[in-house]
Amino acid sequence: MTKTLRFALAAPLALALAACGTGAEETGAIEGEAIAAIPAPEGTEWRSTATMTEDGGTLVGNPDAPLKLIEYGSLTCPTCARFSMEGGEPLLEYVDSGVVSFELRQFAIHGPLDLLLQRMTQCGPDEAVIPLSDQVWANYESIMEPIQTNQAAFEAAMQRPMEERFVVAAEQMGYLDFFASRGISEDQGRACLADVASLEQMADYTQRYSSEFNITGTPTFKLNGRDVDANTWAALEPILQRAGAR
After folding, report:
1. What's the pTM value of the predicted model, to 2 decimals?
2. What is the rounded distance in angstroms from the CA atom of residue 104 to the CA atom of residue 16?
3. How many CA atoms lie less than 13 Å away from 61 in the CB half-sphere?
């Protein structure tokens, strides 16, 4: 087990929700004229074009879009859930124009539970990662309820061997059933959660986001590499529009 993964697993389950919504400070707005739409290849739509990036994120849309939006988000963050519910579909409409691409980089700010949910959302094809993440956020209260009422069972599962602990936790908390009803079979989910190398890689990315990109809270947004002072759709959409998205 890597040092990074040991650190992530040691994160307290008394979730530090104060860390949610502490986005970075703006370091310069992007201003520009309206950018003409860029059609997707014939027979496709940009929102259905998804790839994993070298920085561990899932990018949806035109990979050459002039406006590149990145969200560092946690699946256990209520502010991220609010953004998903209010801004998920409107943002995809901008993605469909080909002018904006959207990359979700999952930030395991709350340790083992984030890693479990993140691994499950990445258990299927690339194009399913963001829809599954949105499903977690849409069901935020029911996702969090088992961990809040049965924390001892989760902590006990985390004491098992690495290849077992996330599988047992997901089974006990009902997460295998949740994802099975959304296209990730139980056998598929078990295999993904027993994949220690992938869990280590996810923990390494979170550590990198913190150390290299100075990410300290979720959601944090960057537009064309610049920090954006927004953590709601109402605040973010005008920033996209001023940058040329219409």
Report:
1. 0.90
2. 21
3. 24
Instruction: Name the token pair of 67.
Output: 């406006």
List C-alpha distances in Å: 145 to 37, 171, 173: 43, 14, 9
Instruction: Give the length of the chain.
Output: 246
Cα separation, 9 vs 23, whole angstroms? 24
- The full 3-state SS of the chain, as one line of letters, equals CCHHHHHHHCCCCCCCHHHECCCCCCCCCCCCCCCCCCCCCCCCCHHHCEEECCCCCEEECCCCCCEEEEEEECCCCHHHHHHHHHHHHHHHHHHHCCCEEEEEEECCCCCHHHHHHHHHHCCCCHHHHHHHHHHHHHCHHHHHHHHHHCHHHHHHHCCCCHHHHHHHHHHHHCHHHHHHCCCCCHHHHHHHHCCHHHHHHHHHHHHHHHHHHCCCCECEEEECCEEECCCCHHHHHHHHHHCCCC
pLDDT in tens, 136-179: 999 999 999 999 999 999 999 999 999 999 999 999 999 999 99
Q: Express each pLDDT in 24-54 by its tens digit.
A: 444 567 888 999 999 999 999 999 999 999 9
